[in-house]
Structure formats: C-alpha cells, structure tokens
Design a protein that fits this description.
The chain is of the alpha+beta class and 228 residues long. Helices cover 36% and strands 20% of the residues.
Length: 228
C-alpha cells in the first residue's frame, strides 16, 4: 500500500447525462435540438424579440423544432415544443440540432469562445448530443484541458474554505465534500485529490476516451502527453 502522503483519493462522481436534468424525457412533435446558449433562450409567444416572454430555458434543455420564421430585423426564430403544454418561439442561435449540418461546428465555436465552467458544460452537451461528429476529438481535448484548469482553481478555493473553519473529520474528506465540486458532479466530471499537496487533478476520462477511440488524431497525441 502506498504511504498516506502519496495516496490519491479518487472522487467518484456519478456520470449523469446533461439531458437528464431539467426534464424527464425529450419533447415530441419535431426535430430535436438542445439549448446551448442560455443568454438567447427566451421562449416567446411570437417570433420577435419584443414578443411576450413565456419562460426562459436553461442550458442543456431539449426542445422539438416545428417551424422556422425570419423576423423583419433578420433574426431567425424556431417554433418549438418544450413540453406537451408549453411551446413558443426561440432565437435560432440559442439551440444546436444534431440533425442539422454545421451545428456541430457552430457549437464548437461557442465552446472555444466560452471559459471555465461554461466551456466544460457546453463541451459535455456536445459529447452527449453529437456522437457521430468528426469534431469530437477536439471537444474531448478541450474538455480535459478545461477540467484540469478548473481543478487548479478548485484547489485554491477549497483550501481557502478549509482555513476559515475548524475541522472535526479527516481533512481530505472536507475537500472531497467541497460544495464547489457539486456542479461538476452534475456533469459527470471526476477529480483526483492528492492529500500531500492538497490539490485536485482532473481524473482524465476525456483524454482516455480520445486515445482509445481516435488514436491516430493529433488531439490523441496531445492527450497522451496530458495523461503522462
């Protein structure tokens, strides 16, 4: 058995698909799409930016696209079903559809423009909803690298939190219960914790999948370096 100071405590976080949150099953009645930019995800009663707000949809929410209409100002709206009883119009750029050519590239561009948790969340949406895209290697590498960057920030914020209060349980258990990990938990992101350095590290699932499924890609070569 490794000495305690070298032992890596593996934080197993339940892998839950993005689509499981916010709704029980995908809506019916049209081509499925997923909310990728919640800033534009205002569901309106009419296809115009001044239309009455029905509700605001969260990132990762599935909708069924029924129709398309372009407003006089050039903004394209999609008529969508959210549930059996909820429907309306939403701006085209708010969603990405696996069945629509080019939407995987558009989502990758949005991922690249995002930072921190937003980048990881959108990358997870891509991997969940675009299983056949040729861009998956790039997204897997982005997800892994972004998770490792997040691990560094989580380590610092968790340590600050630990220093502010008395500890009555093993120190590593406080780190592995740190509330800052919760939203990553919901995305299925896993971290390792090293008690000797009090640092989290990304567990590496995205890198391993990249190496296993796309071994001849340039991204896989980079993933091997990260894994080492």
């Amino acid at each position: 058995m490794l000495p305690h100071k070298l032992t890596l405590c593996l934080l197993f976080l339940l892998l839950i698909p993005i689509t499981a949150f916010g709704q029980r099953k995908p809506p019916s009645g049209g081509r499925l799409a997923v909310i990728v930019d919640e800033r534009l995800a205002a569901l309106r009663s009419t296809p115009e930016l001044t239309g009455k707000l029905v509700r605001r949809l969260s990132r990762g929410r599935m909708v069924a696209v029924r129709a398309t209409k372009t407003a006089p100002d050039g903004i394209t709206f999609l008529r969508v079903n959210v549930t059996r009883r909820t429907h309306g119009w939403i701006q085209r750029e708010a969603v990405a559809a696996p069945s629509r050519s080019g939407d995987d590239r558009r989502l990758l561009d949005l991922i690249n423009q995002s930072q921190g948790f937003d980048r990881i969340s959108r990358a997870r949406i891509f991997l969940d909803h675009f299983p056949r895209s040729t861009l998956r290697p790039a997204v897997l590498l982005l997800l892994g690298d972004s998770a490792e960057e997040a691990a560094e920030k989580l380590s610092k914020s968790a340590t600050r939190s630990m220093n502010k209060m008395a500890n009555t349980a093993p120190e590593f258990s406080y780190y592995l219960n740190y509330s800052g990990l919760d939203r990553y938990n919901r995305l299925g992101v896993k971290f390792l914790f090293d008690p000797s350095t009090k640092r989290f590290h990304y567990e590496g699932a995205a890198w391993r999948e990249l190496i296993r499924r796309y071994p001849k890609t340039p991204e896989a070569a980079e993933a091997r370096k990260r894994s080492e």
